[in-house]
Amino acid sequence: MVTGASSGIGLAAAVDLARRGDRVVLVGRDPARLQAAGDRVREASGERPELFRADFAVLDDVRGLAERLRAAYDRIDVLANNAGAIVLQPVTTVDGFELSMQANHLAPFLLSVLLRDRVGRMVVTASAAHRSGVLDPDDLNRTLRGYGPIRAYGTSKQANILFTAEAARRWPEVAAYCFHPGVVRSRFGTDSRLVALGMRLLPLRSPEKGAETLVWLTNQDRARLVDGGYYADRRPRRPLPRAADPRLAARLWAASARAVGVEA
After folding, report:
1. Where are the domains of the chain?
2. Predicted structure pTM score
3. pLDDT tens series, the chain, 264 aa
4. Which residues are catalytic?
């Protein structure tokens, strides 16, 4: 199952996995784009994927998605938590959280917890942008003050890496990994002139190239991987020390569980 599968590396990964013969489930926010993504996967593989719509800016949507998935599948071999957003202006969701923190971390956290007993492996799309983050588990809305889109995005990416490591510690039966896809040429962040300018100054990857490590992590023998590890270009990497702090990871887990109303 791939979230954020309507475009970019999510769609590229879904196409690649389907071509390999995997049964693929796509999750996306926009119905028209999700339908178009399903058509792309079908054209590439000959099999039509199942489509599930959910808006990660609304936690009730995530809860409903989990219920529908649990009703549809006894097992989800791989949950690819790939959905993400760079938010240009400070936005508070209907649930009361800064939008990029909710869409990029809290919603995937909630979905993963609700599906835990069905999932065999989890792959989380993180980013080297975690270096710009200022995560504070005691204040998940910290970035709303003096807001900057890259700072807020980086903070949510720190959360992704810490969540992955803590999930591996708490859920030994679930293989968990995260990765940096590189700077990918896609719709992601293109509404921001600042982000678009930065992307023009950096070497860009195709969505297919960006998806390579995601696809590799879904298929690689677990014995060859580091549980809870952070990867780039199919190699383990060291994140910023703050994003590798087990005490911070445990605090974030507890704060996230309180925020979304689940047992820690």
Report:
1. 2-260
2. 0.93
3. 999 999 999 999 999 999 999 999 999 999 999 999 999 999 999 999 999 999 999 999 999 999 999 999 999 999 999 999 999 999 999 999 999 999 999 999 999 999 999 999 999 999 999 999 999 999 999 999 999 999 999 999 999 999 999 999 999 999 999 999 988 755 544 444 544 444 444 568 799 999 999 999 999 999 999 999 999 999 999 999 999 999 999 999 999 999 999 997
4. 153
Which helix (DSSP H) or strand (DSSP E) does residue 119 occupy? strand 119-125
Other beta carbons within 10 Å of 165: 28
Both tokens of 134, joined, read 């200022």
The phi and psi torsions of 40 (rounded to 5 degrees) equal -60, -45
Distances in Å between the alpha carbon of 159 and those of 76, 101, 129, 154, 207? 23, 8, 11, 9, 23
Place of tokens 């390999």: 20
CA–CA distance, 252 with 228 (Å, rounded to integer): 15
Q: Measured in Å, how far apart are the chain's first and last C-alpha atoms? A: 24
Q: Which fold has domain 2-260?
A: Rossmann fold (3.40.50)
